[in-house]
Structure formats: C-alpha cells, structure tokens
Amino acid sequence: MTNQERVQNLKERRVKMLKGGGEDRIKAQHEKGKLSARERIDKILDEGSFVEHQSYVTVRATTFGMDKKRFMGDGVVTGSGKIGGKQVFLSSQDFTVLGGSLGEMHALRIAEAQELALKNGTPFIGINDSGGARIQEGTLSLDGYAKIFRNNTFASGVIPQLSVILGPCAGGAVYSPGITDFVFMVDGTSHMYITGPAVIETVTSEIISHEDLGGASAHCSKSGVAHFRFSTEKECFSFVGKLLSYLPSNNMEQPPIADTGDPADRENPDLFSILPDEERKTYDIKDIIAEVFDRGSFLEVHADFARNIVVGFAKLNGRTVGIFANQPNYYAAALDIDSSDKAARFLRFCDSFNVPIISLVDVPGFLPGIAQEHGGIIRHGAKVLYAIAEATVPKISLILRKAYGGAYIAMSSKALGYDRTIAWPTAQVAVMGAEGAANIIFRRDIKGADNPEEKRVEKIEEFKETVMNPFIAAGFGYIDEIIDPKYTRIELIRSLEMNMRKREDRPAKKHGNIPL
C-alpha cells in the first residue's frame, strides 16, 4: 500500500466514523426531534474548538456476534473543547450505534475523558442518550459503569460535573447523573428511571407512560433528580454555557468576576413595596432577589422542586454568589423534607467551589405534621445545619421578617457559622411565633382576665416587643446590623467584601458523616 493509499484509507475511515451508525439511523434520530452525538457537541462547544480523543476505539467482545458489530468509537464521542472560552471535557453517547448502549470500550472512553478532566482541573459534561448496559457484553458493561461512577465520586467537589439527558437513561446508567452536580432534561426527549414502565406494570400492575414516569416534568418537580428543564436541546445547551460562566473550573479557583454594569451603590427604595405590611400576607422572594442582586443575573436551580425554598446563583457587584432564600408563597416558607435536601445539596456545592452563600430569611420554622415526622424531617433538616456549619466560604444572612426556631439557626445563626447577620427593622427573631408563645407563657394571665381575647392580643404585642424585636437579638450580638431596606444591596456588597479573604481551619478527618 502506498503512502497516498494509506492517506485515502484514513479519510475513508474518518468519513465512516463521522456517520456513526449510518445515514438512516441519523435520519431516524432527527425524526424524533433529536440531534446526533456529534451535532450536539457542535452545538454545545465553541465553533472549531473540539478535539476528539480515542476516536478509533472499537469493541473487543466477540460474544453474541459482537465481532460483527464493530463501530469506530464504540457508540460514544469523547474529547475536549471550549464553552465561552472555558476548557471542558465531555462525552456524547451515540444512539445511532447499538442504541448508545454501554460496553467495555464505550465505558473506557468515558472514563478516560473523566480522568483527563480531573487531571486538568476542568468541568466535565456527560451527554446521555443510551439504551443502558450492553447485554451482550455482560459483566464488562457493569464493570464499565463502576469505573464511571468511581470517577464521578473522585471528581465530586473538585471539578463541576454536568449531566445532560437527551434520550433514554435507564437502569445503572442513571447513577452517574445522580452523582454529578447538575442534571439537565428536555421535555419529550429525556427519560430517566431505574426500571421502565413495562417492568413496573409486570411487577406492580401499575400503568404509566415513559414521560410520566421519568420525563423532565417528573424529575424536575416531583423527584428532584433533575435541576433544569428545557423545551429544546438548543435552549439546554445555551443554558449549560451560561451556568458555566458563573462557576470556577475547579475547586482551587475562585468564581469568575463579570462586569454586569449594575452600580454597587444602587439603592433599593422599592423593597418595602414588595414586603407586605401584614405579617401573614405572602409575597414572592424572587422579587426581592431581582431588586437586590445584579440586574438579570439570577440563575435559579431546582426551580420546580420544593418551591418553599429558592436556591440559585446570582451576581453581586459582579461576583458569583449562591442564594439560599425562603419562599413565603409556598407553605408559608416553612422548611420541609424536600426543601431541606434541596438546600443542603446546593449549599455543599457552593462551599466546594468557593461560591459565597447569602441567606434571605423569612421562615416560621420546620413544617409540622405526621408525614413530615415519620418521613424523617429530623434527619433531613439536620442536613441543612450540617451543610452550613461545614461550609468555609463567606456566609451572610439577611433577616427580612420571620426567623423562628431551628429554621432560624439553619438560616441565620452566627453560632452555626454565619460570618455576618444583618436584618431589616421588620425582622422577628424567636423560638416561635408570638401567638403560640403568648398562649404558652401568658396562659394563666389570659385565662384569668375579664376579657381573655383582649388580654391575649395585649400579651402577643408585649411578646413581640420584648422578645422578637430585632434590637433584642442585636443587643446580644446575634445580629450585626439593622438596616434601612433601601440600603440592602449596598450592605450586602460591603458584607461580602469584608469577608472575601476569610480562612477557616477544620479538625483533621477523613470526611464527615452527613445525615443522609
């Protein structure tokens, strides 16, 4: 074979490789409204930045005719590229090749890309579109999944890991996304479940569709497995880039600073028009967030799940911060099992990647009820306490209105580790609400009064003034400053700046035992 013939052979192999499972299968993928593996890489990465890795890998197994099903790349495309100029490593499963099923060499390609991401300190993105483990390869497939899961675990807290689900993701395949930091799904395209509808019907006689069982809506609003939901793949890829622009590439770097054009000295005179005068009246905490933080910068995480807590990233004077805020529009902002899990997971991500935490507090406590108690609210609520106490990033708390009981400790307590706690004059700090407290403390006075109801109202006001008044807590040093709400943005920026260089030591240990 001449040198020219060798070059021609290379070109032919390259053309064949780029076609994956063939034109017909790519067409079938398009007919489902889905892009091919390589088209997805082209969409998510900066143009011309992709460098493929191990592109000529093929299956080694020979059982069940696998030696006749050799495809270059073995059903996955891996490599590196840039998103908004930021280096990333990624894998994109190719459903046109053996249904994107994971075999030995397929898994090794993904594992290699994960390891390179970890070595280079860059984010890793997994694009999942797979029928699951390749049955013909038996334990080779299962061993491959184990390698991927282990790499996910080693990379956790070291580099950001994103899972983009753009097709089926079933059985063991779902556990890699489950370990990663953020899961993205697309309506009508993404499906995740341990066992599919057919198996469930056989075992339990329950009938459910793929979409209702494991679609984007189910996992974003019910299970909490997924964090972000989109209408199209294009929207999804665009948001991946936006999210990465808020994050450092690894845990040794600080988050990027951006010029948002929003003045640091901008006042917030409209805040009191958002907070109602009536204590029992609700409002949308996102209106507060939109007014205080850099204009248009808020990226909410887990928006449809456990809506009584709001978490997400925003910019404050150009710096990335993590927001942890009560939402009075849902359950009166009481913390429950799901919101505790949601908050703790987000707080630990922020701490891992040097993102300061800002807590916005208006919480009446943990949600009461038999279902909550038997569901383990003690264990789940303890996760939030653990996450805040463990975190070493700057932690700032702003009390807007209610701050009661254990929920106050989780969201505001300097003893738990908040570096600075500030409050509005409307703040109320206590073990419980005034009505309940008055009925306990002043029970005899109220019962013995000529007009018990009038006496009860009097005692409620007395309790508010002598116990719940924010100046009482400030007098003990538990609140650092009480501010006019119109200076909220200014005060948060000052509080952040004064704590950006903080250092904290922790006792030497292998790792803690968070109450999972």
Q: Rounded to an integer, what's the Rg over CA atoms?
A: 27 Å
Number of separate structural domains: 3
| Backbone shape | elongated
CATH level-1 class of the largest domain: Alpha Beta
List the total number of helices.
Answer: 21
Task: Summarize this entry quickly.
With 516 residues, this protein is of the alpha/beta class. It contains 21 helices and 17 strands. It is elongated.
What does this structure look like?
The protein is elongated. Strand 12, helix 13 (337-352) and strand 13 (357-363) form a beta-alpha-beta unit. Helix 4 (104-120) packs parallel to helix 5 (139-155) and helix 17 packs across helix 19. With 516 residues, the protein is α/β, with parallel strands linked by helices. It is built from 21 helices and 17 strands.
Task: List the topology elements.
Blueprint: H1 3-18, H2 23-31, H3 37-44, E1 51-52, E2 76-83, E3 86-93, H4 104-120, E4 124-128, H5 139-155, E5 161-165, E6 168-170, H6 175-179, E7 182-186, E8 191-193, H7 197-204, H8 210-214, H9 216-223, E9 228-230, H10 233-244, H11 271-274, H12 285-292, E10 299-301, E11 309-316, E12 319-326, H13 337-352, E13 357-363, H14 370-374, H15 377-390, E14 395-404, H16 405-412, E15 420-423, E16 428-430, H17 434-441, H18 443-448, H19 452-468, H20 470-475, E17 481-482, H21 488-499
Parallel strand pairs: 3-4, 4-5, 5-7, 6-8, 7-9, 12-13, 13-14, 14-15, 14-16, 15-17
Antiparallel strand pairs: 1-2, 2-3, 10-11, 11-12
